[in-house]
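<given_protein>
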Amino acid sequence: MARTNISVDQAVFDEFSSQAQRQNKTLFAFANESLSTVAKVAAEGGNPLDLYKMWRAVTLLKQIDVITLPSDFIDELIVKDYARDKAGILKMFRDLGSQLVGVLKIAAEDLDQLSALVTNFAGLLPVKQFTIGAKDKNKVEIDVVGAGRRIESTECAVEFLTSVLNGYGYSVIKKEVNVGTIRVWATRRDYRSFSFVFI
Protein backbone atom coordinates (compact mmCIF):
# COMPACT_ATOMS: atom_id res chain seq x y z
CA MET A 1 0.00 0.00 0.00
CA ALA A 2 1.51 3.31 -1.10
CA ARG A 3 1.58 6.15 1.40
CA THR A 4 2.16 9.82 0.75
CA ASN A 5 1.45 13.18 2.32
CA ILE A 6 -0.81 15.65 0.52
CA SER A 7 -1.00 19.30 1.54
CA VAL A 8 -4.41 20.95 1.37
CA ASP A 9 -5.91 24.18 2.68
CA GLN A 10 -7.15 23.92 6.26
CA ALA A 11 -10.71 24.79 5.24
CA VAL A 12 -10.70 22.02 2.62
CA PHE A 13 -9.37 19.51 5.16
CA ASP A 14 -11.94 20.52 7.76
CA GLU A 15 -14.82 20.13 5.29
CA PHE A 16 -13.40 16.85 3.97
CA SER A 17 -13.02 15.45 7.50
CA SER A 18 -16.54 16.62 8.41
CA GLN A 19 -18.07 14.89 5.39
CA ALA A 20 -16.16 11.67 6.10
CA GLN A 21 -17.64 11.65 9.61
CA ARG A 22 -21.11 12.47 8.30
CA GLN A 23 -20.94 9.43 6.02
CA ASN A 24 -19.58 7.32 8.87
CA LYS A 25 -16.33 6.60 7.02
CA THR A 26 -12.74 6.83 8.07
CA LEU A 27 -10.72 9.65 6.60
CA PHE A 28 -8.61 7.00 4.85
CA ALA A 29 -11.63 5.32 3.22
CA PHE A 30 -13.30 8.60 2.24
CA ALA A 31 -10.04 9.92 0.74
CA ASN A 32 -9.50 6.73 -1.29
CA GLU A 33 -13.09 6.78 -2.58
CA SER A 34 -12.93 10.48 -3.48
CA LEU A 35 -9.52 10.37 -5.14
CA SER A 36 -10.46 7.23 -7.08
CA THR A 37 -13.58 8.94 -8.47
CA VAL A 38 -11.67 12.09 -9.45
CA ALA A 39 -8.93 9.99 -11.09
CA LYS A 40 -11.50 8.06 -13.17
CA VAL A 41 -13.13 11.28 -14.37
CA ALA A 42 -9.74 12.74 -15.32
CA ALA A 43 -8.66 9.49 -17.04
CA GLU A 44 -11.69 9.71 -19.33
CA GLY A 45 -10.87 13.29 -20.28
CA GLY A 46 -13.21 14.94 -17.79
CA ASN A 47 -12.61 17.87 -15.50
CA PRO A 48 -13.00 17.05 -11.80
CA LEU A 49 -14.55 20.51 -11.29
CA ASP A 50 -17.46 19.36 -13.47
CA LEU A 51 -18.43 16.74 -10.89
CA TYR A 52 -20.00 19.32 -8.59
CA LYS A 53 -21.79 21.06 -11.46
CA MET A 54 -23.24 17.78 -12.68
CA TRP A 55 -24.29 16.78 -9.17
CA ARG A 56 -26.16 20.07 -8.72
CA ALA A 57 -27.82 19.64 -12.12
CA VAL A 58 -28.91 16.08 -11.41
CA THR A 59 -30.24 17.09 -7.99
CA LEU A 60 -32.39 19.82 -9.53
CA LEU A 61 -33.59 17.51 -12.30
CA LYS A 62 -34.70 14.99 -9.69
CA GLN A 63 -36.76 17.70 -7.98
CA ILE A 64 -38.73 18.31 -11.17
CA ASP A 65 -38.87 14.62 -12.10
CA VAL A 66 -37.20 15.04 -15.49
CA ILE A 67 -36.88 12.25 -18.06
CA THR A 68 -33.89 12.98 -20.32
CA LEU A 69 -34.45 12.07 -23.97
CA PRO A 70 -32.44 12.75 -27.17
CA SER A 71 -33.05 16.23 -28.63
CA ASP A 72 -33.98 14.91 -32.08
CA PHE A 73 -36.62 12.67 -30.55
CA ILE A 74 -38.14 15.56 -28.59
CA ASP A 75 -38.09 17.78 -31.69
CA GLU A 76 -40.01 15.16 -33.68
CA LEU A 77 -42.61 14.81 -30.93
CA ILE A 78 -43.05 18.58 -30.83
CA VAL A 79 -43.39 18.85 -34.62
CA LYS A 80 -46.12 16.19 -34.72
CA ASP A 81 -48.11 17.73 -31.88
CA TYR A 82 -47.53 21.25 -33.25
CA ALA A 83 -49.12 20.26 -36.58
CA ARG A 84 -52.10 18.76 -34.76
CA ASP A 85 -52.66 21.45 -32.11
CA LYS A 86 -50.34 24.48 -32.32
CA ALA A 87 -52.18 26.56 -29.72
CA GLY A 88 -52.34 23.63 -27.34
CA ILE A 89 -48.65 22.76 -27.39
CA LEU A 90 -47.58 26.40 -27.13
CA LYS A 91 -49.80 26.69 -24.05
CA MET A 92 -48.21 23.54 -22.64
CA PHE A 93 -44.77 25.17 -22.89
CA ARG A 94 -46.05 28.41 -21.33
CA ASP A 95 -47.53 26.40 -18.49
CA LEU A 96 -44.30 24.41 -18.12
CA GLY A 97 -42.29 27.61 -17.75
CA SER A 98 -44.74 28.92 -15.14
CA GLN A 99 -44.60 25.67 -13.18
CA LEU A 100 -40.80 25.33 -13.23
CA VAL A 101 -39.88 28.93 -12.45
CA GLY A 102 -40.54 28.38 -8.74
CA VAL A 103 -38.04 25.53 -8.64
CA LEU A 104 -35.55 27.48 -10.77
CA LYS A 105 -35.72 30.45 -8.39
CA ILE A 106 -34.75 28.22 -5.47
CA ALA A 107 -31.46 27.47 -7.25
CA ALA A 108 -31.13 30.82 -9.06
CA GLU A 109 -32.61 33.94 -7.45
CA ASP A 110 -31.91 36.24 -10.40
CA LEU A 111 -30.93 36.11 -14.09
CA ASP A 112 -27.20 36.17 -13.35
CA GLN A 113 -27.56 33.10 -11.17
CA LEU A 114 -29.82 31.52 -13.79
CA SER A 115 -26.99 31.93 -16.32
CA ALA A 116 -24.63 30.07 -13.99
CA LEU A 117 -27.25 27.37 -13.43
CA VAL A 118 -27.67 26.81 -17.17
CA THR A 119 -23.88 26.55 -17.48
CA ASN A 120 -23.94 23.81 -14.83
CA PHE A 121 -26.58 21.99 -16.87
CA ALA A 122 -24.52 22.18 -20.08
CA GLY A 123 -23.81 18.46 -20.12
CA LEU A 124 -27.48 17.53 -19.74
CA LEU A 125 -29.31 20.14 -21.83
CA PRO A 126 -29.14 21.05 -25.52
CA VAL A 127 -28.29 24.63 -24.50
CA LYS A 128 -24.63 25.09 -25.37
CA GLN A 129 -24.15 28.68 -24.24
CA PHE A 130 -26.00 31.10 -21.99
CA THR A 131 -24.19 34.33 -21.18
CA ILE A 132 -25.30 37.70 -19.85
CA GLY A 133 -23.47 40.87 -20.83
CA ALA A 134 -24.31 44.27 -19.34
CA LYS A 135 -24.41 47.13 -21.86
CA ASP A 136 -25.13 49.76 -19.20
CA LYS A 137 -27.07 49.99 -15.93
CA ASN A 138 -30.37 49.65 -17.83
CA LYS A 139 -29.56 47.08 -20.52
CA VAL A 140 -28.37 43.49 -20.51
CA GLU A 141 -27.83 41.10 -23.40
CA ILE A 142 -28.23 37.36 -22.88
CA ASP A 143 -26.80 35.02 -25.53
CA VAL A 144 -27.90 31.40 -25.58
CA VAL A 145 -26.81 28.75 -28.05
CA GLY A 146 -29.30 25.93 -28.61
CA ALA A 147 -33.07 26.41 -28.89
CA GLY A 148 -34.39 23.52 -30.95
CA ARG A 149 -33.54 22.23 -34.40
CA ARG A 150 -36.92 22.94 -35.95
CA ILE A 151 -38.91 26.17 -36.05
CA GLU A 152 -41.70 24.46 -34.13
CA SER A 153 -39.47 23.56 -31.19
CA THR A 154 -37.89 27.02 -31.29
CA GLU A 155 -41.31 28.66 -31.04
CA CYS A 156 -42.11 26.39 -28.08
CA ALA A 157 -38.82 27.49 -26.48
CA VAL A 158 -39.92 31.12 -26.87
CA GLU A 159 -43.13 30.41 -24.96
CA PHE A 160 -41.19 28.60 -22.22
CA LEU A 161 -38.64 31.44 -21.98
CA THR A 162 -41.39 34.07 -21.85
CA SER A 163 -43.04 32.33 -18.91
CA VAL A 164 -39.74 31.95 -17.07
CA LEU A 165 -39.03 35.65 -17.58
CA ASN A 166 -42.49 36.50 -16.29
CA GLY A 167 -41.71 34.48 -13.19
CA TYR A 168 -38.54 36.51 -12.67
CA GLY A 169 -40.51 39.75 -12.99
CA TYR A 170 -39.86 40.58 -16.66
CA SER A 171 -42.24 41.23 -19.56
CA VAL A 172 -41.30 40.49 -23.17
CA ILE A 173 -41.82 43.53 -25.38
CA LYS A 174 -40.30 42.27 -28.64
CA LYS A 175 -38.95 39.02 -30.09
CA GLU A 176 -37.31 37.67 -33.24
CA VAL A 177 -37.52 33.95 -33.98
CA ASN A 178 -35.60 31.76 -36.44
CA VAL A 179 -34.76 28.06 -36.40
CA GLY A 180 -32.70 27.55 -33.26
CA THR A 181 -32.40 31.31 -32.75
CA ILE A 182 -34.48 33.54 -30.51
CA ARG A 183 -33.96 37.18 -29.69
CA VAL A 184 -36.20 38.57 -26.96
CA TRP A 185 -36.35 42.06 -25.49
CA ALA A 186 -37.86 42.23 -22.02
CA THR A 187 -38.36 44.92 -19.40
CA ARG A 188 -38.59 44.72 -15.62
CA ARG A 189 -40.52 46.86 -13.18
CA ASP A 190 -37.44 49.07 -12.77
CA TYR A 191 -37.51 49.44 -16.59
CA ARG A 192 -34.17 47.79 -17.24
CA SER A 193 -34.26 46.21 -20.71
CA PHE A 194 -32.77 42.86 -21.64
CA SER A 195 -31.85 41.27 -24.95
CA PHE A 196 -31.89 37.47 -25.13
CA VAL A 197 -30.40 35.48 -27.98
CA PHE A 198 -30.87 31.71 -28.53
CA ILE A 199 -28.70 30.42 -31.40
